[in-house]
């Protein structure tokens, strides 16, 4: 069993071409928001463009951001704490579009399995990967920000990869370095990076604590029929 790390859309496309399962990590905030929505029983349709989200047939809700700010006319921004407190009926279909995360999901199209992971569901995700994929190869993809590395995504990927290693998965060299960074970097440092400062400026400071808490949502969102769905699964 091998687990690798890659970055951005290019990494997602390469993983899909190689036939690897892909875990998309956008810790601030798309992967965290998807985990919240799935925990409420929603179906989350990832769409790359705002226009597609507006026109998506059958969407009960539209959620998304550009530059971390809520898209005008959408029901919610990409705020996991806002959505956690909102009355989202089970079975709702949600069209979700974000600056980075949903584009990386689209780039992974064709992979045998596409899942989303973050700090909040790292343990449950690893349980799902171990149970469903067996000896298959997994590539954990940190989304980054507009083509650049994002420390929060690499740290969340490290949280997932460290748990995979503990379950007996072999990590490639890049994945090992990502785990080392996760284990050596205090979470407090992520509260002051550029993404965190941007969220605070926009009034989303509450999201930071929520996004950085580990193993709070026992779900492993998986793309099925064009939407992320998931069943509750207790982390090991």
Task: Give a quick precis of the structure.
The chain has 236 residues and is of the alpha/beta class. 42% of the residues lie in helices and 19% in strands. Mean pLDDT is 92; it is low at 232-236.
Describe this protein with a few key phrases:
alpha/beta, putative 2-phosphosulfolactate phosphatase, five-stranded parallel β-sheet, disordered C terminus
Explain what you see.
The chain has helices spanning 8-17, 30-39, 50-55, 80-85, 101-107, 122-133, 151-166, 173-184, 187-190, 194-201, 205-212, and strands spanning 2-7, 21-25, 43-46, 61-66, 69-70, 93-97, 114-117, 138-142, 170-171, 222-224, 227-229. With 236 residues, it is an alpha/beta fold. The protein has a single domain (2-223), classed as ComB-like (putative 2-phosphosulfolactate phosphatase). The strands form three sheets. It has a five-stranded parallel beta sheet with strand order 7-2-8-1-9, sandwiched between helices. It has a four-stranded mixed beta sheet with strand order 3-6-4-5. Strands 10-11 form a two-stranded antiparallel ribbon. Strand 10 (222-224) and strand 11 (227-229) form a beta hairpin. The radius of gyration is 16 Å and the shape is globular.
């Amino acid at each position: 069993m091998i687990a690798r790390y890659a970055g951005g859309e290019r990494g997602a496309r390469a993983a899909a071409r190689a036939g690897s399962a892909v875990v998309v990590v956008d810790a601030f905030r798309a992967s965290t928001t998807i985990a919240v929505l799935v925990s409420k029983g929603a179906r989350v349709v990832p769409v790359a463009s705002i226009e597609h989200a507006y026109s998506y047939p059958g969407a009960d809700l539209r959620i998304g951001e550009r530059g971390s700010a809520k898209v005008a006319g959408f029901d919610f921004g990409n705020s996991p704490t806002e959505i956690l407190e909102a009355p989202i009926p089970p079975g709702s279909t949600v069209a979700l579009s974000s600056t980075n995360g949903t584009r990386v999901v689209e780039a992974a199209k064709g992979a045998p399995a596409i899942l989303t992971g973050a700090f909040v569901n790292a343990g449950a995700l690893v349980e799902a990967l171990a149970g469903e994929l067996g000896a298959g190869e997994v590539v954990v993809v940190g989304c980054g920000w507009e083509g650049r590395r994002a420390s929060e995504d690499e740290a969340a990927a490290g949280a997932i990869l460290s748990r995979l290693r503990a379950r007996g998965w072999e990590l490639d060299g890049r994945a090992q370095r990502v785990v080392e960074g996760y284990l050596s970097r205090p979470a407090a440092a992520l509260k002051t990076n550029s993404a965190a400062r941007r969220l605070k400026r926009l009034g989303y400071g509450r999201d930071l604590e929520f996004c950085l808490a580990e193993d709070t949502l026992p779900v492993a969102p998986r793309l099925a029929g064009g939407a992320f769905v998931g069943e509750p699964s207790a982390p090991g």
